Amino acid sequence: MDFVTLTKPEIMKATIKIYLRNKPDINNNKPVVLRITKDRKTKLISLGFKAKDEEWDSDKNRFNKRSRNYQKKNRVLLNLEDRALKVIEDFTINNNMNFTLKLFEKKFRGENKERKNVNSYLTKLIDDFETTGRYGAAQPYKDLQSSLFKFTSKNLQFKEVDFNFLKSFEFYLRNQNHTEGGIAFKMRHLRALYNNAINEDIVDYSFYPFRKYKISKLKGKSRKIALNKDELNRFINVDLSKNEHLVQAHKLFMFSYYCRGMNWIDMMSLKWEDIYDGKIHYTRKKTKQPFIIEVLDPVKDILDFFKKTHSSTNYVFPILLKENLTPKQVKYRKHKTLRNYNLQLKEIGHLAEIDKQLTSYVARHTYATLLYHEGVSVEKISASMGHSSVLVTMSYLKEFDSHDLDLVNRKLIEEPIELY
Fold this sequence. Notes:
SAM-like_dom; Arm-DNA-bind_5; alpha+beta; 11% strand; 15 helices; 3 domains; DNA-binding; 420 residues; 4-stranded antiparallel sheet; DNA recombination; Integrase-like_cat_sf
C-alpha cells in the first residue's frame, strides 16, 4: 500500500507513503522514510532503516530478498504504516483534522508514555546527533539499534526492557561472538538511553532494570594501555632512519601526548589560525569545551616539521586534505586515516620493543597516568583533559602495575604498623 487517503468530504485529505529517500550516505545506503502530506504540506519521518537501491523493491516500497532479514523488516514497516493510519484515524474520531504535521509526528513516534518505544526513541536520538554533526556520538546508538532489531524485531517498549530481557540480550550478544567489553559497551548505551527516557517522563523509574542488572560484572580482561616512563622514552628515541614512512605517525603521537592527550578528531581539525601568541586554541569536538594549551618546545619542533612538509590546506596536519568537506566526508576520512595511523603505531611499537598495543588513545592514557604518578591530583588531570567528571578520569587511572602494588605491600614490612 503506497498511498492511503482519507476521503470523507468533511475533512481535509491526508496521505502517507513509505519509500526509499534518494539521499545516500558515504556507503550508498539510503534512509527509509514515512512521508505524510496534508494541506499541501509534507513532512518526512525517518523510520530507522537504510537500504541500498538493489535491496529495495521500488514498486512495493518494501525490502526485497537481497536485504538481510527482509521479512522482519517488512513486518516492522507494515506495523509502522498501520500505526500512522491509526494516528490519523484517532484525529478523525476526535474531530481534530486541523492537526499539524508536527503533532502527527509526536503521536506517531509515541511521545506519550503508552506508545513510546525503544526503536523510535533511538531513531530520534540518532537523528539529533547527526543533525548537529555528532556522527561519532551517533554511531554507538546505531550499532545498539541494529543489535536490538536483530534480537527482537517487534516494537519494543521501555517497560519490556526488564532484568530478564537484559540477560537474554546479553546471552544473544555473547552468542554473536561479542567480547565482554563489547557487551558492556552496548549495555552502557542502553542504560544511558533508558535514563534519558526516565528524565523525559517516557517511562517511570519504577521500571528501571539496571538497579538489578549490573553492567560492572561484564568486565573483560583488563588491558593496560598507558606507557610507563621507560616505554615512553623508548618510543621517543626509537630509530626510524630506515622507516621514514613512520615519522609522521611518531610526531602525531608525541603531539597528542604533549598537548594533554589531544584526540584524533581534534588534531585533524586543527588549523594554523588556531595557533597564536604561543598558544593552541581549540574546542574539543566531543564535549564542546574550549582549550588553550601552551606550545612547548617539543610541540614547536613538531609544528615546524609539518609547516615545512604540509601546506596544501590550512589544516596543521595532513589528515584532511581538502577544505570544506561535508560532515560525512570528514567522518569517512577520520576512520580511514585513524586506521592507518594505528597500524603505523603498531609498527613503531615493535621497533621500540614495546610489548603493548599502541593506538591513538595510548598517548592520552599515558599523559594521564604519568601525571598521576608524578603526584598531580585527579581533579587537575581531569580539568586538563576536559573530562566531564572525575569518574571518567579515574577510569583512565584504575590500572596499576602489580609491581607497584608489591612495593606498597612491602611497606607493611619495611615500616611496621604500631598497634595501640
